Amino acid sequence: MTPTKSDIRRETFGQLRDGREVQLFTLTNAAGSSLSVTNYGCIITAVRVPDRQGTLSNVVLGYETMRAYEDDTAVVGAFVGRFANRIAHGRVSIDGAEHQLVLNAGGHHLHGGATGFHKQLWSADACMSPKGPQLFLLRTSPDGEEGYPGALATQVVYTLTDDDMVMMDVTARTDRPTLINVIQHTYFNLTGSRRSVLHHDLMVNADEVLCVDQDLIPTGDKRNVAGTPFDFRTSRRVGEAIDAPDQQLRHGQGYDHCFVLNGRDGPAATLRDAASGREMTVTTDQPGLQVYSGNWLNGVHAPRTGLCLETQHFPDSPHHPSFPSTLLRPGEIFRTQTAFQFTTV
Q: Of 34, 340, 49, which is closest to residue 185 (Cα–Cα)?
């Protein structure tokens, strides 16, 4: 590829139904790769990186119009919170006080509610940094939004480095004890097209996976992956065992499970497309990785044309004292970083 100059482009992407304007920011690094993000839902709309021949293609699922993102129910490319994934029956207790969260998934709370972070307009600004072009997105979720206590001020920073790493840094503060568990919900497809992801090779650095019930709520049990369809400790095809006669797979209609990561040493996961030579390595400071094989995609994107690798705390954590805490108190700062490194092999 011919080297270029790092660049930040800002343009109008469209309007919401209420008339508010949505901006699209495109960060381009010195190698010519780019990251496009809207200030609606902090959505990653495109990641353009080269294959082994140097040809740039978009390796994430997205939509062409703002209206499609506004109507989207698959949370394509979005930043999710306050609490990503599921909370059983939407009921939580914090310091003895009961809180009822919005129910938006069959009697349960999912991805922060019907109007969670992914359905909000964020303030945004971009600048060049020593690491590469950066986009800063900020929003304060008011006390009571979707049932959560406390005003939660959150900052999301996306960085595109010159060696094709997409970094996401998140910080948050609250004025009352509240819950926080945030993720990036991008659907990856390293082919650069919309073919099935079942032929991608996946490695997940996890010896255990959380068991779930028929509503995909964790039971509290952890299952050793050895000898099961969930054993990705060495790289294997995503589709190799996705339709095996396994009760956990039947619950998710495929993979939609949180893996218990083996600490912070080394990558959490790697995803590879042999045809294009593209490889993506995921690193994180989070304890879990939700692997979702896009089983419920429909319409513009067919089922299993995108794979989510969602770094996070465990689903339904407030109901499982043995899980890492997702409680944030006044005076504390929530911090997390996840990075997606793109290379070719």
A: 340
CB 328 within 8 A of CB 178: yes
The 8-class DSSP code of residue 59 comes to -
Exposure on the CB side of residue 287, measured as CA atoms within 13 A: 13
Instruction: Give one DSSP letter per residue of 61-126, joined into a string.
Output: ---SSHHHHHH-SS-TTEEE-SB-SEEGGGEEEETTEEEEPPP-BTTBEETT-TTSGGGSB-EEEE
Asked if 145 is an active-site residue, the reply is: no
DSSP one-letter string for 268-330:
SEEEE-TTT-EEEEEEESSSEEEEE--TT--TTS-TTS-EEEEEESPTTGGG-TTSPP-EE-T
Cis upstream peptide for 82 (omega within 30°)? yes
**Catalytic residue of the set 111, 257, 310, 313:** 310
Task: Please state, in angstroms and rounded to a whole number, the distance separating the CA atoms of residues 237 and 17.
Answer: 42
Q: Which of 118, 185, 200, 301 is catalytic?
A: 185
The pLDDT of residue 4 is 67
- In terms of Cα–Cα distance, which of 316, 258, 264 is closest to 289? 258
Q: How many C-beta atoms lie closer than 10 Å to residue 150's C-beta? A: 23
Cα gap 21→153, rounded to integer Å: 22
For the stretch 106-154, pLDDT in tens is 999 999 999 999 999 999 999 999 999 999 999 999 999 999 999 999 9
Q: Which residues contact 262 (CB under 8 A, 6 or more apart)?
A: 205, 206, 207
Tally Cβ neighbours within 10 Å of residue 291. 24
To the query of whether residue 70 is one of the catalytic residues in this protein, the response is no
The SS3 of residue 33 is: coil
Residue 58 host element (H or E) = strand 56-58
